[in-house]
Request: fold
Amino acid sequence: MKLLALLFAMFWCQIMAFNVENAKLTYTLNKESKTIKINSFDDKTSPEHVEFLNVDDTVKFSFKLDKCKKVPEQIELLVGLPERDLEISVKPTLKTKDNSVLAIFKLPLKDLPQSILYFANKEEKQIAGTVIIASSEVEKKKNVFKQVFNLDLDLKTFKFDSFPEPLRLEALPEIRHVFPSPPKTVSPFLAQLFAVIIIATGAGLLLTWMSSGVTKFDNIPRGSTFLCFIGFIASIVGFEFIFFRYYLGTSIFDTINASTVLGIFGLIVGTKYLRSIGNNI
Reply:
């Protein structure tokens, strides 16, 4: 008998779909509880409209499924902006008694996501509530998918200014690669090392000339050799000037080019001058 009763109940659910009774929407407005009865979930019934809800209010939605022993596989309430596919799922508290199922949904408005509040404010949309009652044992067309209420919120009482709007199916900002400019100077360590080498070399050269007697006034060349002497000294001063400009920011490539030209000139006149005084040392 029990088996026959169960089969009959399942068959009754299939032919009668879901028998929804005592559906009501309860909310608090200025700390006062108000209730709206919803008579039907059919497509011809317009959603109930609730206005002036703020962040401290709470919305409760409940209904009873009568004459069906088995709890449907899916009972939930979708709250949000369905036109944007931006909704949250609210799970009910279920109570079964005498072949009926009582579903109670509770939604504190302060728990609404920032994204829903942001787009509701930006697009001036109402928050929709859609109930789903579905079971694989019932014909698909007899399952319930119905928008039952719209909430008009006082969005000034909510905080959602910091929500970053996501990019969806839009062009992303162009990525531009900025390559670093060519280096104009070497690192400070290499510049200091090079300066120390120049000073040490110059001091060694001066000491060598003094010890060998080249710096005597009697050894100052005359005639054409004097011109080579002036060119040799000028090349040394020119190198110092080139390195000084490099230290002030001249590029390494300009420094190399100027040093190459001056180096060839200094090598020619320096060789002639040093050969001329070699016989006098």
User: Anything to note?
Assistant: Residues 252-278 form the longest helix (27 residues).
